[in-house]
Amino acid sequence: MSGLSSIGEADVIAALTTNVWVSLHTADPGNTGANEVVGGAYARQGPVAFANSGFNPTVAANTSIITYPVATANYGTINFFSLWTAAAGGNFIGSGPVPFPIPINTQDSARFYAQTLTVTVD
Fold this sequence. Notes:
The protein is elongated and about 45 Å long. The chain has one domain. The longest helix has 11 residues, at 6-16. The chain has one helix spanning 6-16; strands at residues 20-25, 45-48, 50-52, 59-62, 66-67, 76-84, 92-104, 111-112, 118-120. It is mainly β.
């Protein structure tokens, strides 16, 4: 056997995306979670639940709205999100692009509706 079955992929993604913290990034986080927003009242949000979504069991999406605090400084344009095991520090789990780039300026707040942030087992 090579690789995981659909059930195996669903089990793996469920274990990795249950009650995680979601971070915002201005550029590709790579394999380490680089380019995370800092300052300006920014804080990772969580714990957030992700659940298998759609017809492909290797895809998980956020199950509820995720809302960030009002920015007290410009964050720049948010292009990616990442999943972490903790609100600060913790282990980087993975990342994905946001559905559309979002410029966050002072007095803005980022919000992602349920089912808009997705991660896929590759």
